Amino acid sequence: MKLLCGISLLLVVTVAYHIYIPLPRTISEPWKLMLLDAAFRCVTHVFNMAHHLGLTHRIHVLNYAINGVEMLVPVSCEGIQVQDTHFDGVQVRVYQPSQKEKNQLRRGVVFFHGGGWSIGAPKLGSYDLLCKKMASDLNAVVVTVDYRMAPEVHFPVQYEECLHATQHFLKPEVLAQYSVDPERVAVCGDSAGGNLAAAVSQQIGVDNDSSVKFKAQVLIYPVLQALDFNTPSYQQNQDVPILYRRLMARFWLEYLGANLDHVHPMLINNHTAKDHVRGSAHRAKLDWTTLLPQSIKKDYKPVVKETGSPEILEKLPALLDVRAAPLLAEEDRLRMAPRAYILTCEHDVLRDDGLMYGRRLEQAGVHVTSDHLQDGFHGCVSFAFWPCYFSVGIRAVQNYIAWLDENL
Ligand SMILES: *[C@@H]1O[C@H](CO)[C@@H](O)[C@H](O)[C@H]1NC(C)=O
Ligand SMILES: *[C@@H]1O[C@H](CO)[C@@H](O)[C@H](O)[C@H]1NC(C)=O
Known about the structure:
Subcellular location: Cell membrane; Microsome
Distance between the termini: 65 Å
Bound molecules: 2-acetamido-2-deoxy-beta-D-glucopyranose
Structural class: alpha/beta
Protein name: Neutral cholesterol ester hydrolase 1
Shape: globular
Number of domains: 1
Number of helices: 17
EC number: 3.1.1.71
GO molecular function: acetylalkylglycerol acetylhydrolase activity
CATH class: Alpha Beta
Strand order of the largest sheet: 1-2-4-3-5-6-7-8
Radius of gyration: 21 Å
Order of helices and strands: HHHEEEHEHHEHEHHHHHHHHEHEEEH
CATH topology: Rossmann fold
GO biological process, one term: lipid catabolic process
Largest sheet: 8 strands, mixed
CATH architecture: 3-Layer(aba) Sandwich
């Protein structure tokens, strides 16, 4: 009996030791987040092992795990018609409310899911429920783009598939076919999907071939730049689950089809040292010392190296490409973008990407609504549904849908 108690105690301590991580006091439901993080780390170990054994690419294992979990989420289909089809050769899923009055035109929402341009299942679980909720709460036709991902394809394929599917949907005859009001179409995305939504809405804004423009863009904790991995939020939240700073750098390199050896030099901003002329030209567009308020900057110091690793920008010109890093756009490009709702989370490495973009859009004359969640963490919008939900996730979804309801 004593032995059993001893073993049980040891087991509990071991599990607690592996699960426990120090978290900021203001974060939403810290114990739940620790469990989620432990599960995530466990899967990460398995996928690293499988990768090193040469069994499969680490991203594939992660995707199997995510799909497995997402399949557990109950499917509810009440009142929403679901159709899988292609827009200009790109796989999409269209959600339409079944009830419709004659001749009534609806709102339209184009949605790009997150997952570091390499993971995520738009047709399963939380993203599926999110699209159904948008379709039903907004009485909208929602198009989710099932773009191909890394490691099969790299930049600019993800961006181009999102753009082409969007251009197809925005054709007047296609909108008419779905009874969508051309004056009331928005684009929306979370995380890497927020990156794609920002990039696509910039392009649609300047595209002379698209007569229909977006009325609004919703960017949920978007990733917008890869030149500074030492913004205050990257410094403050580098170890906060579930998007660690290191993981974000890896997602970037996977997206660009680059060598993961660049992770370390990029994390210390070696790729944008002062001796690189090309990187320096963009510095003002992400100079957080002028773009962010003091309450966010606190006492954090910019990390600017005197000398660095110039070969990275030579090898990866996409780091300076606005289609990959929308924060680097010039003001005349930003000015053509639609009014924006930007959701940022305090406990997120990408917080300052979103805040800086909001500031730059405002400077360009675009109307911006900033929604900053003090207890939010990266990914919370994907945790808004049973069985895995956080109060902050539910709130985030309610907030952005309410904004769309007013502004679309
Ligand atoms: C769109 O038209 C304007 C004015 O004619 C022109 O200046 C601009 O370069 C065009 N944009 C694109 C993307 O072709
Ligand atoms: C960063 O750049 C410096 C100067 O070129 C170099 O000595 C150092 O090894 C680089 N660090 C990494 C991690 O690449």
